Amino acid sequence: MPNIAIVPAPASVTELPGDGFTLGAQSSISATGDSAEQLSAAAAVGEYLGELLRPRTGFELAVNPLGADAAAPGIRLVIDDSAAPGYSLHADADGITVTAASAEGLFSGVQTLRQLFPARIEAALDGSTRVSDDVEWTTPAVQIEDAPRFAYRGAMLDVARNVFSVAAVKRYIDDIALLKLNVLHLHLTDDQGWRLQIDSWPRLTEIGASTSVLGGGGFYTKADYTEIVDYAASRFITLVPEIDLPGHTNAALASYPELNIGGVATEPYRGVEVGFSTVDTTADATWRFVEDVVRELAEITPGPYIHLGGDESLQLSSAEFSAFVSRASEIGAASGKTVIGWHEMGQSRELAPGTIGQYWDFVTPRADAAPHTLSFVEQGGQVIMSPSDVSYLDMHYPDTDRLGQLWADGPTSVEEAYSWEPTAIVTGLDEAAILGVEAPVWTETLDGIDDVEFMVFPRLAPIAEIAWSPAPAGVPGAAPDAATRSFAEFSPRLAAFVERLDALGVRYHRSPELSRR
Amino acid sequence: MPNIAIVPAPASVTELPGDGFTLGAQSSISATGDSAEQLSAAAAVGEYLGELLRPRTGFELAVNPLGADAAAPGIRLVIDDSAAPGYSLHADADGITVTAASAEGLFSGVQTLRQLFPARIEAALDGSTRVSDDVEWTTPAVQIEDAPRFAYRGAMLDVARNVFSVAAVKRYIDDIALLKLNVLHLHLTDDQGWRLQIDSWPRLTEIGASTSVLGGGGFYTKADYTEIVDYAASRFITLVPEIDLPGHTNAALASYPELNIGGVATEPYRGVEVGFSTVDTTADATWRFVEDVVRELAEITPGPYIHLGGDESLQLSSAEFSAFVSRASEIGAASGKTVIGWHEMGQSRELAPGTIGQYWDFVTPRADAAPHTLSFVEQGGQVIMSPSDVSYLDMHYPDTDRLGQLWADGPTSVEEAYSWEPTAIVTGLDEAAILGVEAPVWTETLDGIDDVEFMVFPRLAPIAEIAWSPAPAGVPGAAPDAATRSFAEFSPRLAAFVERLDALGVRYHRSPELSRR
């Protein structure tokens, strides 16, 4: 077992001489900060850590927001204005100190801290795990300096094709927080279902929410949505809501005839085809609809982004499509939010300035995917990289077709999910033009969060490492001593990571690519 | 490993001398019957069996509805008017013959037949299982005579507290078919959600379906409902829909003010308390509501039963409650269906004749549970036994509190789920008065079918055996040579059963009570 096995890999890990820290019944969690606000924020991160560590250890782990006991052996969470970006972590026999300039940095440090303890420290204390009394909860002695490579590190969950409870989404938020992801993109609408209450267009949920691929319907009330937003915020995760336009809209088209070319409502749809639906881009009703939906969505979305789709619009001419997304992006920007669109939206040269593109073509771009993607940068925006043949985590695993699909260039192995580089896909798209990396999971075949976890783990861990860890050797701007990204090096860390999933009760695919430890 | 390990235990199992049957690439499934209709029905059961056995074996297993190849080694499914109730099964080196007087009997026989083959014959052929080329698919040589003890063998799924996709319900139907259960009771409405489209009262789903305990909403359209009914019928399972009245109605009360005492709609509810809601039993609107819902429900329900609840009505006086359930039962009966109600409904002495009671008090009845239950029999009906302290499968397991609740007299062990006798609970309720046995699973804490499977398996297997297998020694009417029900005898068969769940990918709790084989 490697002594230190952290996913995603920190920027710098230095093993220290001497013993590490042993958590004991007398240990406390102290929080310090330069202001009352920082103190309170650090204490909240400490409370989160306490909730992780208390059940299995049985220790009290009181959170001391004054930091007065800082001399006692324990965990010290420090917010310090002068700290470097990211966090630093020092662990030795006297305790563990995590220092960051912000609560978000501390929270990232806590995700590393978790992984320094044996995985079973996070097992539920429900009597199902045998507990030996002589367990020692000891970390290695280590100094870590760490900061994220990309600002946007996302996971997308498709809650349109099938229905997921609020509790399921919260569980997914906890799952992705462990990997230092900081964005949850919810794909809220598609042909098969409209999943968000919109007061001014109630039939969107009365009719548009009544279907799903696997049968039955459902939607989130605004109270549900806010509950998700708030829970994500408590994990320093920004919610990015997506309303997919002008295609992927059958659920809306079935709800309101006036959105349709020809003015006749479509039938509700439960199949898995794409590209067949579009709103009537010339209808006044369509623009009232877009304005109302964007306004109501922006009102309940504290984060900076709203995603307006733009993918696979196959029923419109290029000119019609460009005109639509241009106007839609302006409506989005007027709501005070930065618009994100799938890369096809870059066909328009008249997007709201700063619109963000999300690339979902393959690692080797086809057709116009590259120029459409560069178009966002040329219009003052950045790009999120989600190459579908390596980061769409609903693709089959190579060794099982139990769940998922195949269309994105066949199955995706764990090694393939790890073996790509965001700056090496679209020529001319350099590090500064890339806002971040996101792994979507589409749910046509997935029923509930267990199925999602099966598809996503372990492959989300490689994606998170690409998003967080330093640029590898060979990438322009990489550190002079940067290592080459190596699956052989990653693999034992991944094996340690899935031990933690086992302890947490998170489902994952026991892929033959997981090396034994 | 016991050679023959079938759950639920057949009435009679005789090991035969000589070899059993080995399924091979040349094996076929032949179907015979006394009429074209029977031939077609037998062939449909054969096709179901073929779908189970083909993926892992890779054999063609053609279904021959003419029975012309009956001489060839293979599986023969025979419908014969003169056959005894239930089915008989004969397996030797020449083949396996299942004989029954009906397709339903054949289907029961096929569930036994599955369990004669090694469990791994049902594993998905998805590359995730290692296949050795020398596997022989051989059964023991055996003669089995079998018929169910009780006509009604049910499982109840609460789809009101949380939302389950149609696909999830279908999976549960397949799960329970393996145990020869023949009723799926869907608890469609409760305080936290109304889950069925009712055209004449659309706000029931527009508002009443928008909540669930774990967040998010959802409901079944009539098309969804019919899809479930039809799938259940293909497994010889009758769907029993429940509309819970007059309590457990907050979702309806939040949708329509006129159903409320005082005429003001309640707030939607996501908590887990019970007993606080009631419709206004004196309002004309309430009776229009009951008549409309019952009429629409009966129209889409081909089975003989509708369940009208009646439990935990704590806001009405006994007289008010009795008057309500009396009139509701008459409305149900007028729809052409036999009404089922929880045992409290027996407070009324003016139920529609033949109304069925469902007992959910403890194995040792408290308060008025026994007289209320006997009341159904006195009014010409029968009783379904669901004692909550042994058959409510959402109760905690003794060794984990990960999911479920505790209120029904604490946790329920696998042995407790096995160690009760339906005729020994309510004094005076004899074998003939008991229509059957049902195991409910309430879903306040359960998110998706994986959570349901975890709570239900392995404990549903004991309940199914109580419902199907012959009365044990000591029960009036038991066979003279009947054995005593013994967990020590059951336990190795249960261990064999969960091996099949492993092969099928059905989740279950790896209880320490599961003996190793």
TrEMBL record, chains A, B:
It catalyses: Hydrolysis of terminal non-reducing N-acetyl-D-hexosamine residues in N-acetyl-beta-D-hexosaminides. The active site is at residue 312. One of its GO terms (cellular component) is membrane. Residues 150-313, 321-470 form the Glycoside hydrolase family 20 catalytic domain. Residues 4-147 form the Beta-hexosaminidase bacterial type N-terminal domain. Belongs to the glycosyl hydrolase 20 family. This is beta-N-acetylhexosaminidase. It comes from Microterricola viridarii.
